[in-house]
Every structure is written in C-alpha cells, then in structure tokens.
Q: What sequence folds into this?
C-alpha cells in the first residue's frame, strides 16, 4: 500500500528562481476552495469519494452475478462513461483470471466495428451495462437499441431484467426505462461530470463485474483524498503549479509516457481529463501520450530534438508484477550476451532512467510520478490525484475545469443532418 | 480501384492569397529531386516500389506455409520494422477469415507483456519473423532470444529452420545467423530506412503470412507512384505545401483523425513517419492522432476551443465495408426514433461532415483525404502517398527527412548502464 511519489526536480530547472513557491501558494488556495467552498455550480460531487461511491452493496451483488454468469460483459458508454473503468480493466486484465470477456460498445458509429461487437455476443451469455448521464448521446443510445434487440431475440423479459444494468441520473428517461422493464438502475450522480466519475457507479460496476477489488480501489482514492487534504493540496497542487508555470513559459504540449504498455488505456483517461478540462478559451496545454520503449522508435526523435515546447510526464511503475529473465546462449552468437542473466524489469528501468536523463538534457522539462504496483489501490490513488490536480490546474489557467461547451458545436450540426426533433 | 482524393480547400482559407502556388512549386521541385537525383546518401531505395519489393516468390511460398501451418505468427520488430504491416493487418483483420493469430513482440521491455506473449505461444504451432535492420536494437534482439529458446524446447533444428524467418541487411550478423541455422532470410534493403520500408520484405512478409493480397497492395503503391510522377508530385506535393505554409503561420500540431477505428494502427505508422522525419533541429509539426467519434468525447473540446495552433487531417473512408441498420422500436420509447431505418454508415458520415465543419468554423485548418475502401490496394496508395509527401515536407522544413540522430541519446546512456561492450 505504498503511496504515489511525485518528482518535479528536473522540471523545476526550467523555472525562474522563486516562482514555484508563489504558484504553489495559488494552487493551494484553489485546492482549499475546491474542497471547502459550497458546490454552487453542482460539479463537485466527486471531491469526496464517500459521496461518489453509492449503492456499493447492490453493485457487489450484481457484479458477482455478472462475474459468474456472463461469458461477455458489454460496457456501453463513451468518453467519461467508460474511460476510467476501461483503464483499470485493461491494466489488470482480469480475464486471465477467469472473468468474462469485456467488450466496449457505444463508442463508435462504424458499422464494421458494431458488426464485430454483435458477432462477438452471438450464442454467448451476455450482460450489458449502459452508462449515459445525458441519455441523448447518440453512440450509447443507438448501441443500446441494437444490442437490446439482439438480446430480446434470445432472452425472456425476466431474463432481460437480470441482464441489463442502466447507469444514469435520477429522474432521467433512463431511470424510467429501468423501472418500466425491471432493469437494475445505478446512479450517475447529477453533481459529477463524466470525466470525474471514476469513484461513482460509472467507474465501479464494471470493476465489480470483472471481479476486481472495488474496496481496494476506493481505499486508494480515499487515501489520496486524505493525504491531499492533510497537505493542503500536496502533490496535486505541486503538479498543477509546475505545469502552469511551464505553460506560461511556452511549454504547451504535455506527453504522458510510461514504460508499461498496460497503461495505454490509462493515458486515454488522462487525455480526456486534461484535454476536456483545459482546452478552452483558445488556451490549454495540448495533451498527448506514448508508450515507451516502443514509441521511442516513433516519437522519440521528436522528443529529443524537435520543437522545445514539450513537457514530458513519466508514470513509473516500480513493481512490474512479473519477471522474465534472459538465459545465456553463448553458442548462438547473437551479440546480446551482455544481457545474460538480467531480468527485463531491470532493462526496462535502465531504459526509462536513460530516457528521462537524455530528454531532460535535450531541453524537455521532465516530471516523474512513481507508483508501486498496478493494482486496484494504485488506480484509486492515481485517479484521485489527477482529478484533484486537474481541477486546480484549470483554475490556475483561468478556465472552468468542469464544463465542455465546445463539444456541442459538431453535435448541433450532426443532429440537424440526422433530423433530430427540436434541433 | 478508386484513387485517393485530397481536399485542402478548408485549410487554404487560412493561408495568404497567392502563397500556395509558390510553395507548391517548391514542393514540386523537391519531389522531382527526390525521384530524379542520384541517391548519394543511400536513402531512396523506397522511391521505386519495384526496387523495394524483392523476393516476392520466396515470400509467397513462405507466407502460404505460415498461413496454413501456424496457429500463432509472431512478428518481432519495433518502430519501422512492424508499423506498416501491423496497420494493414489490424485494419483488414484477416484472423476473422481464418488466418493465424498474430502477436507483436520485440517492442517492449515490460516483463508483464513479454510473459503474456510467451504464454500465448504455449502449446501452439509458432512461426516467427524477426525484423531488424540494425541487429543491435535491444527489443527485437532480446525477444528473439527468449522466443527462440522457448521454441527450441519443442522443435528440432530442422523444424526451427522452417519456422524462423529473419529480415535484415545483407552482410549483417542476422544474415550469418540465418545461414548458420538454415533459417529463411529476407532482405531489409540497405537503402531503405525503417519508416519507409512498407513495400520491402519488412512490410510484405507479414501480409503474405496473414493471407493478405500482397499484389493488390503493391499495385496500390505503384499506381500512386505513377500518378505522382505524372502530376509532378500531385497531391503529395500539395499536402506537403499546405502543411508547410500552415506551420509557418504557427500551426504546429497536426492531428490525423478518422471515424474508422480500424485505422488506429495506421495513425501510429503515420505518427512515426512524420515525427521521426521532421522532429529535429528544434522544429517540426508535432504529430498526434485520434479516432472519432469516440475521441470527440475526449479531445473534441480542445479541437473546438483550445489553442488555435492545430491542423486537423481527416482520413475519410467512403465505403465502410459493412452495414448495420437501426430497426424501429417505438414501444420502448428510447427517444432515438429519429434514427429509425438509418444505417450506421450514414450516421458516421453525418458525424464526420459535422465535425469538419464545426472545427473549421472554430478556427482549425482541416484537410481531408478520402479513400474508397480499406483494402490492400488502398493501403498501398496511402503508404506511398504519405512517404512521398513526408520526404518532400521534410525538405520544405529544411531538415533531412531520412535521418534520426536524436534517438541515439537515450540509447547511449542505456547501453552504458547495461554494460554493452564498446559503449
């Protein structure tokens, strides 16, 4: 149960003397406002994990049923409605411990992809969880219909009632649908936006369904919540302050990188969190991500020698949770004998340390966030840390980290083309 | 066999009157130099598809054997040694037509990932293709050893000789290893860099092994080669000229986006091509990518309202190669009845057209490249188009699009830590 460690020393070298203390003060003040001021805008339901994590017993029960009876669990959601759960599931890969296969639907209009998902459910025991705060979003809405119709060909009304879980806001059409059909209904709390929903039923039910440890995950979140509170914003305020100062100095792209490929989906959660919270009013650090060492062979050249407007944030995993050692093979003569007896974990760490040093020397402010292992507890910590940091960071930038007005523009045009009533 | 269509009109609106003609001239001149000037630096072996595509009969034969006898085909390569083939395979998904499972190895040091790959080969018929131009690269070198040792526990020397294909340069240690062990050896032509190797055996053998149509793919490349030659650089010079002018005006991030999730791996090939070719001398457009509509729920807000330094290049697929229609369900009352009877292809296109319009109106220069279907022929066209465009684009930027000195910095430090002799 080790804690996250943040090291900003290599980035501080790019800042003017004395500026960090001041910015850290500002960040701390925004943090205190976040946790203390009344929630007049109705967006801070996530600040307390305890408040977000409702209906735990119901989810434990339903999760156990899905874990036991489903061959395939279809998570129907897009953006904030699936990213957090997906990142944990794809990192821990519970399927290799006998959990159901998980399919992600409700996140595309490609008929090719939808066909693939429908094919993968054929003839298998299917459970679905449809997650939609605003049940007007096209992708989950249309996929729910298509999947439901397929399931109704095979299951009775009673069987459907067991197999469908809807997650939405109280009072929404989704809740009515659950009541009319006897489906299980879970709360997407009104005061929690999609990208801040990791500790609500949005992020929790899929974990329970895949047999993951919801309690350890929540404990990680709560532990970080307490730690930040005790430290006046602590590492979250520090991360926010450092990137704010770097942005003011013209560093306007942040790459989140990791040497652990299992974190690929975590980067996508982070990408949404920061992109959608800060990319407004013609400002904001542009978020991007890479998985090293593979992507050193793609974007490494740019990181080392391209435009010097890059921040690089390393997510380091101390304990990879596996060991593969390189056995000698002297007779073969592959010229890699200097690796004899080494574990890949050791090589991976050498590559990571070399990369940080080379990129920092090349003019990239590097930040390092280290976690022990990639388990449920660690993800709880990571999610709370980044959500708190992002909320503070948006305020330092002078934008509202909880809105996303910009995504309405294309939707209006699209709805008009599709003939949606009232648009 | 339709051709690619490039539409830069929405981006041209961001350029000064008259500048495009001039930049297009410069691009055309660089294009002619590319195809006409002697290859003194030894980097233009890819410019003629005919020159790159050697050993076709051997690959057809070996590919058919792998297709027939392998349960698992392991492609061991990193960066330019696997991206092109991976993008085609992951788009066309031949496994659903009975091809072997393909695993990608030689691209990580994570012991967790390597363990997963080793587990996936256990007890199954395994063939491997190790691709390494410079057989000093750690990832493929170390994975080749580990995989080879596992295979040797099960296969005789004669059986190993059938199951291992090595792709490297003539005269390299890899060629000697092939000779000493009776493995099949394929050429990684000396005058072709990794990211330009799509039409060499590097890109071809994996297609043949997965039962894909190598000839249609090469025909696509050749057709584009001829077309660009006939048009003095044609759409490749136009794309290069437009992005060069945009870069000069401060647009320094390019997002390659597509509404077809199957193109996820193609974006990664493109990412390496441009990132590694242009990110040097502290300049270059920063490449990034997204898959819409899913990522509109992540990065869409930033694209619409964030910093106005973004170029957005849409890769449009006219024919999705599938059809899923939305059947009415009036009694259920899900409020999506306005979609009744529509095909998802139609919705996807409406979303794409709305997005281009909304983002362009929001201040993003949008470029659109349209292809008919996602088949082997189309990928041949896309690869040749982008490689030619990138070679010209690097010259417009004033950098060498064929080197990648920047990737040596971290390697030196890493090799020193690992005790590599002579470093």
A:
């Amino acid at each position: 149960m080790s804690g996250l460690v943040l090291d900003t020393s290599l980035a501080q070298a790019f800042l003017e003397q004395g500026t960090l203390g001041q910015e850290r003060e500002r960040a701390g003040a925004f943090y205190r406002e976040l946790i203390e001021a009344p929630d007049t805008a109705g967006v801070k339901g996530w600040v307390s994990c305890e408040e977000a994590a409702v209906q735990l017993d119901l989810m434990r029960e339903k999760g156990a049923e899905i874990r036991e009876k489903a061959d395939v669990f279809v998570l129907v959601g897009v953006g904030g409605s699936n990213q957090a759960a997906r990142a944990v599931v794809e990192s821990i890969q519970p399927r290799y411990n006998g959990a159901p296969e998980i399919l992600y639907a409700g996140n595309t209009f490609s008929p090719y992809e939808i066909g693939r998902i429908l094919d993968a459910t054929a003839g298998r025991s299917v459970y679905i969880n449809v997650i939609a705060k605003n049940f007007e979003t096209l992708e989950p809405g249309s996929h729910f219909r298509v999947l439901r119709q397929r399931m109704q060909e095979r299951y009775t009304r009673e069987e459907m009632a067991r197999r469908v879980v809807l997650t939405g806001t109280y009072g929404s059409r989704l809740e009515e649908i659950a009541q009319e059909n006897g489906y299980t209904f879970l709360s997407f709390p009104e005061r929690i936006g999609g990208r801040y929903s990791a500790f609500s039923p949005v992020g929790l039910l899929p974990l329970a369904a895949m047999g993951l440890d919801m309690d350890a995950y929540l404990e990680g979140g709560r532990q970080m919540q307490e730690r930040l509170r005790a430290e006046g914003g602590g590492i979250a305020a520090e991360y926010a302050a450092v990137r704010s100062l770097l942005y003011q100095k013209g560093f306007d792209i942040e790459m989140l990188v990791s040497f652990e490929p299992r974190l690929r989906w975590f980067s996508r959660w982070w990408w949404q969190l920061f992109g959608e919270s800060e990319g407004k009013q013609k400002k904001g650090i542009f978020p991007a991500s890479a998985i090293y060492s593979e992507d050193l062979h793609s974007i490494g050249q740019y990181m080392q020698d391209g435009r010097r407007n890059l921040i690089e944030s390393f997510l380091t995993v101390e304990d990879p949770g596996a060991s593969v050692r390189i056995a000698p093979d002297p007779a073969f003569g592959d010229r890699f004998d200097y690796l004899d007896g080494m574990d890949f974990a050791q090589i991976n760490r050498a590559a990571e340390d070399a990369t940080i040093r080379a990129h920092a020397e090349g003019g990239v402010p590097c930040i390092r966030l280290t976690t022990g292992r990639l388990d449920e507890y660690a993800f709880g910590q990571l999610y709370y840390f980044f959500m708190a940091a992002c909320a503070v960071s948006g305020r330092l930038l002078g934008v509202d980290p909880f809105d996303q007005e910009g995504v309405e523009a294309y939707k209006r045009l699209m709805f008009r083309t599709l003939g949606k009533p009232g648009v």
Observations:
- The two ends of chain B are 51 Å apart (CA to CA).
